[in-house]
Design brief:
This protein is mainly alpha-helical. It folds into 2 domains: 115 residues, no CATH class; 285 residues, no CATH class. 74% of the residues lie in helices and 5% in strands. It has 16 helices and 3 strands. Helix 3 runs antiparallel to helix 4 and helix 10 crosses helix 15. The longest helix has 52 residues. The chain is globular and about 75 Å long.
Length: 425
């Protein structure tokens, strides 16, 4: 009997570890994975759960009421990108399991079914076209620039589909892809003077830049997940460095004569519209559920509106404007998550996308190629201040939310103790 219980507990722990790995690979945050697995383990009969997750490793210890303790470790080697529908389905599975615990074999089947589901490839291609084209115009490009960026977005999406699985890692893929796209766009801009190379490349960079990974890394450090945050931060910086090196090499070999050609500015209405197009593109790329798509896009539009309003008060202070916009995005995403019973990630990533400093990163690279070191310092610091401002704005709201929840739990607990003592007397 004890042997059967031990085998059942071991199978349960394996199922929980499989789910944790699948969630991590699908783009779930570290804290979400840890909290979900701990809750499910307790709901399935564990007396205590110790869950430790970083980007490349998962360790779970499960203590049972009979005194048995089981520990399993999992090395996570791959990343499947971000898939919001999978994250939602895992979230729904965890809620269902906590309400009515399911057998280990059933858990394994459901996790495998979610893990093996694949979105339509056309959704990814359409999202890439909208994201690259929209953000090319968002940063001041013309319709011609947006159309050319959309064409190269199809190529990037094809590269991600065919080359990324056989690349050594994301860094080597970013280097190869940025060189190919950078050379091709530079040649096109040389042949067609109507095009602005800087705006087209910025739109393409937005598809490859690890802006979300960089922001989440800083956020993890600020909220206490230091190891995970530092690992993701180093990883994101290496990805960005490979991307920068590739585009710098492309501009160097082709002369980079058109790198700073475009300098158009958009009206506030045009900025809001193109921000919405870009947010829709990333929402499709990340596989947002259709009935949530309007709210995800609305978040991007409203967030950029908040950034513009903040910029009118703070002037050139990118950090404070980013803090204000990121704080709004976090409040918006948390509110929508409660209303729609969906993970907040589904809303805050599309909302934050217009804040990603793709433009300043490109101009940092362009200045480096031209030896303009003052420009490197100016644009580089703007990029870092923007990323830090996003992380700080998110962390402030999450810290306040965490404190309020703790106070509410303490108040509820005190009220229950008071009622129990009253009834006992």
């Amino acid at each position: 009997m004890e042997q059967n219980n031990s085998k059942k507990n071991s199978d349960l722990l394996t199922g929980l570890l499989n789910m944790a790995e699948a969630m991590l690979v699908s783009g779930s945050e570290i804290t979400r994975v840890e909290d979900t697995i701990a809750r499910m383990g307790l709901a399935c009969g564990a007396e205590h759960m110790n869950v430790f997750v970083i980007t490349s490793c998962i360790i779970v210890t499960m203590g049972m009421p009979d005194g048995e303790e089981l520990t399993q470790t999992r090395r996570v080697m791959t990343s499947g990108g971000t898939d919001f529908i999978k994250i939602e389905r895992f979230n729904e599975l965890s809620r269902r399991c906590c309400a009515d615990p399911i057998a280990p074999e059933t858990l394994e089947e459901e996790v495998r079914a979610i893990e093996t589901s694949r979105p339509s490839p056309w959704t990814s291609y359409l999202g890439s076209v909208l994201a690259a084209g929209g953000f090319t115009m968002f940063f001041g490009g013309t319709l011609w620039d947006g159309g050319m960026a959309a064409l190269f977005a199809l190529a990037i999406c094809w590269f991600q589909e065919r080359l990324l699985p056989i690349s050594m890692n994301q860094m080597s893929f970013n280097l190869l892809c940025s060189v190919i796209v950078g050379v091709a766009t530079s040649l096109c801009a040389g042949l067609l003077p109507i095009l602005h190379l800087d705006k087209i490349l910025i739109g393409c960079i937005m598809l490859l830049i690890p802006g979300i990974a960089l922001t989440n890394a800083v956020r993890n450090v600020l909220v206490g997940n230091t190891i995970s945050g530092l690992m993701r931060l180093v990883e994101a910086l290496l990805w960005a460095a490979a991307l920068a090196l590739g585009f710098m090499a492309a501009m160097f070999f082709t002369g980079g004569a058109y790198a700073m050609a475009g300098d158009a500015s958009l009206s506030a209405a045009a900025q809001l519209f193109t921000a919405g197009v870009g947010a829709m593109g990333f929402s499709l790329m990340f596989n947002v559920r259709r009935n949530l798509l309007p709210l995800a896009v609305l978040g991007g539009v409203l967030d950029w509106g908040v950034y513009m309003i903040a910029a009118s008060f703070f002037g050139e202070t990118v950090f404070l404007s980013s803090v204000a916009a990121a704080a709004f995005a976090t409040v918006y995403s948390e509110a929508m998550a409660r209303v729609k019973k969906a993970p907040s990630t589904v809303f805050y990533i599309p909302a934050l996308v217009p804040l990603i400093p793709g433009g300043s990163l490109f101009y940092t690279m362009s200045c480096a190629v031209g030896g303009q070191w003052d420009g490197v310092g100016s644009f580089g610091s703007s990029t870092l201040y923007c990323a830090l401002g996003i992380a700080v704005g998110m962390s402030l709201i999450l810290s306040v939310d965490f404190t309020l929840r703790k106070l509410l739990q303490m108040k509820t607990s005190q009220g229950e103790r008071h009622r129990n003592s009253h009834y006992g007397s």
